[in-house]
Amino acid sequence: MKISRMVGALATALWLTLPLFAHAADSADTQKKPGREERLDKPIPEPRVWTSRHQIKIGGKAIDYVATAGTLLMKNEKDKPIALFGFTAYVRQGQDSSNRPIVFAYNGGPGSASAWLHMGILGPRRAFLEDETSNTRGPFRIVDNEFTLLDRADIVLIDPVGTGFSRPVGKAKGKDFWGVDNDIRSVSDFIVRYLGEYGRWGSPKFVLGESYGGIRTGGVTYDLLTRHNVALNGIILVSPFLDFATGSAGLSVDEGTVNFLSTCAATAWFHKVLTPQPPQLQPFLREVEHWAEIVYAPALFRGSRATAEERQNVLAGLERYTGISAAYWDKANLRMDENRFLQELLRARGITVGRIDSRFVGGMPNRIAESTAFDPYAAAIAPAIVATFNDYVRRELKVVSDQKYELSAPLWKDWDFGHVQPDSNGMKLPYASVIPDLSYAMTLNPKMKVLVQQGYFDLACPYGTVTHAIDHLNITPELRRNVQIEYYEAGHMMYVHPGSMSKFRDTSAAFIDANAN
């Protein structure tokens, strides 16, 4: 079914289709009724933390820090235990915590643990990854991360319930956490709990979310402010998914289809399939963006009312900018989701293209398939992340647990994508947009700043979908000056691209420095 396929694809900005990972614990709790023995209250596991002391050199300067990895026991409003919430915190020593910035960070999915950000760019140790090649054969290396932000802020990496070591406990079930609004509330509650448990109420506070973490961050920003009176200094949105309708291609929403085109064009440019081949990316993208707005979008809006001449003009442009034939676009009725595009682009060569980072390519097991069978980027990167994180957390952070660390669980299968927006009069809308949440949060907290980091070769959350969302924030011109967008010639995880790592660190560090007072 088209809609279910799109929901699955969009919810996975990080690796959810990989067979490499097992299903999350408790995923069966929505599929069967408990038997008599299962109705008995199970003992509540004790939260545990492991602490260790370390040192790293950043910019030639030694930084002493304490790592704390483990879980916090979360309770509901009736003081009943509901979850063990996993986290890893890095706190620089010799600093005054009352004015030391703190960054709470997570990945997306839904169903992705924070190991990708952890071992990719934020933690003091990272996986050594080779770009545009398969990182699938050990030995896998862990190196000091000179790009960490630990010299500027303390870092708390969060694993939402169902990922990492985070699990429902007591009478709580996965469905109590697995949905847009439930997830927002549970992450907000964890942040508030951490602030109290570790004495960080006075700290300048930042939240960093990647991919579906954009939906989460938009909601958490508003929820923290209105339910807990916690105001953030700033948020960092990394390749964010912010609005289901305009952030999806292939649905009956013209904006989404138009928003994907510029990244399809960037991908075609990178793989040199255009005739003629533009010499430079940036001038080419400005041309595509203008054409999409002036020619493509109006034709899609008119539908069957578009004239034959208008349709032929659009088909010629689509072929010119994507390298895919006008005949194929014609059969697709001028609309194509990213999976079809990635399968079709290099089909003649027997090559499929990466969705999360379209610079990556892989073999095509089925050369007549309509859409991609796997993501070459995920296949090339995930094994190294999995191996290095599991080794690091147990050997260097000394975590001892008989539980599996869930790096990527298919929680989207049970996810409630409905969302009660601040402007929906309490009605839950069927698909989430946090543009209203972020608009309200920025209005209520006009000193909060927003940094967006986005790659040009990201077809999971294309840059056109992000700029469209930001352009439609319902805020004043003055508040728009609080938003900064940085672009990278890389993919969804631009921070693993060697040419982008320094920029990601420098941009994020400058953002924290500028907004920590």
Low-confidence blocks of residues: 1-39
For the record, what CATH class applies? Alpha Beta
Rg calculated over all Cα atoms:
23 Å
Give me the number of helical elements: 14
What is the H/E order? HEEEEHEEEEHEHEHHHHHEEHEEHEHHEH
CATH homologous superfamily placement: Alpha/Beta hydrolase fold, catalytic domain
Helix content: 25-40%
- The percent range for strand residues is 15-25%
Structural class: alpha/beta
User: What is the name of the CATH architecture?
Assistant: 3-Layer(aba) Sandwich
| Tally of separate domains | 1
Total count of strands: 16
Summed over residues and divided by their number, the pLDDT gives a mean of 91
Describe this structure in words.
The protein has 517 residues and is an alpha/beta fold. It has a single domain (2-245, 382-515), classed as 3-Layer(aba) Sandwich (Rossmann fold), CATH 3.40.50. Helices cover 35% and strands 17% of the residues. The chain contains 14 helices and 16 strands. The strands form 4 sheets. Strands 1, 2, 3, 4, 7, 8, 9, 10, 15 and 16 form a 10-stranded mixed beta sheet that branches. Strand 1 (49-58) and strand 2 form a beta hairpin. Residues 1-39 have low confidence and may be disordered.
